[in-house]
Amino acid sequence: MSSREIRDLPDDLERLRQRFERWRATHRAHSRISDSLWAAAAKLAGSYGICRTAKALRVDYYSLKERVEQASAGTPALPQGEFWELPPPSTASLGECIVEWEDAAGSKMRVHLKGFHAPDLAALGRSFWSPTP
Description:
The protein has 133 residues and is of the alpha+beta class. It has six helices and two strands. The protein has helices spanning 3-7, 11-26, 35-48, 50-57, 61-73, 118-129, and strands at residues 95-102, 108-116. It has a two-stranded antiparallel sheet. Helix 2 (11-26) runs antiparallel to helix 3 (35-48), helix 3 (35-48) packs across helix 5 and helix 4 packs across helix 5 (61-73). The N and C termini lie far apart (89 Å).
């Protein structure tokens, strides 16, 4: 970016450019840019455009574009390399029922099931109907 282009930057974009330069002065080359700097860059890109902002801040156009899209979608940018564990599926969708069996000899069994799976019920029925050794 030429010195004239730098002079013509809006004040808030120039302040952010200086923050990026200070950050670069204290970090090794190819270090990851902090989330707070990315968030500020994405916010200003919404006002001044991705291309102009990326050029002023000396950041990758596509990386900035991705951050802008994530910000506009309301989804936070996930830090790279971070693992997010998802909770197991809820058992709320599993059924509840009462099953009663009676065989020809008059034996009866009543079972109240909560949160069961159909294969469990089938196995229980097979064991009730199978002859005892």
